[in-house]
Amino acid sequence: MKKGLVIDREAQMIGVYLFEDKKVYRGIPRKKIIKKTKIYAGDYVLGNVIDSETFAIESVEERKNFLVRPPVANVDKVIIVFTLKKPDFDSFLLDNLLVVYEYLGAEPVIVFNKIDLLNDDERKELKRWKDIYINAGYDFIPVSAITGEGIDTLKEHIKGNISVFAGPSGVGKSSILSALTGIELKVSQISEKTERGRHTTTGVRLYRFNENSFIGDTPGFSSVDALYFMEKREVKNYFREFLRYRCRFSNCTHTDEPGCLVKEAVKKGEISKERYENYLKIIGSSK
Ligand SMILES: Nc1nc2c(ncn2[C@@H]2O[C@H](COP(=O)(O)OP(=O)(O)OP(=O)(O)O)[C@@H](O)[C@H]2O)c(=O)[nH]1
Ligand SMILES: [Mg+2]
Ligand SMILES: [Zn+2]
């Protein structure tokens, strides 16, 4: 049997990339697995080539994770794209996204796009955010989809992985995808305006680049609520830098408890005030 990756998933269509053949086939699931398993983009499948265009899917490998929006399985990295301006940076949305993807088991990579637009002061401001997120333990890559600055660095970070984009509308996700893959995306491939003007996902496609790297585009979104995914008391486990501290109480929520080392670290400047305040805001206890 041969191993493939589902890179196209739309209505009845399943596009499977076979690693050995380096070719995309139309996947036809065997009856026995149709009943048991839904097949998503990002699924690794095993099966047999039937003819030059057709691949019979015999089994679907267990998923390491599954992202709902867009529906993609086995996501290694989520490229979270923001801009300092056009649109303005929203650190609350970024921190919510970091918590959610950490929870879902996909490694976040923070990308700041449109650095070609920044003047000297704004570059300093970008550097300040970069230091904050690097300090917290994240990758942070400034790029410009237009000039190509930083794109090679980003490529290195997502090499050999399945990645998807996340972030607000208009930050340049599709533009970065084009810069990475050389594929021109005229319109977002996975969202379509319905008559009511709402965006609906109609299918998912992963684009291949650099041999075995795959990346999926995503329509932008303006808000994500971490508490939709997890309990309030769990949120603290997904602020990476908090995990370096052992407070007096092991179940410390880092709000009002005595002996809270996280709060102390904020005072000392070891943990960023912005990140801590967003934490309080997420759990609903900001003043
Ligand atoms: N100056 C500048 N403009 C950019 C850059 N990247 C993208 N843009 C512009 O920003 C606008 C939005 O880019 P898109 O790639 O469509 O943004 P998106 O994140 O895919 O947006 P949605 O699909 O709505 O979520 C377009 O007008 C792009 O030309 C960049 O690096 N620099
Ligand atoms: Mg787009
Ligand atoms: Zn604490």
TrEMBL record:
Can you say where in the cell this protein is located? Cytoplasm
User: Which cofactors does it use?
Assistant: Zn(2+)
Q: What class of enzyme is it?
A: hydrolase
InterPro entries, per database record = G_CP_dom (IPR030378), NA-bd_OB-fold (IPR012340), P-loop_NTPase (IPR027417), Ribosome_biogen_GTPase_RsgA (IPR004881), RsgA_GTPase_dom (IPR010914)
Q: Which GO terms describe its biological process?
A: ribosomal small subunit biogenesis
Q: Does the keyword Membrane apply?
A: no
Assembly, per entry: Monomer. Associates with 30S ribosomal subunit, binds 16S rRNA.
Under what name is this protein listed? Small ribosomal subunit biogenesis GTPase RsgA
Question: Gene name?
Answer: rsgA
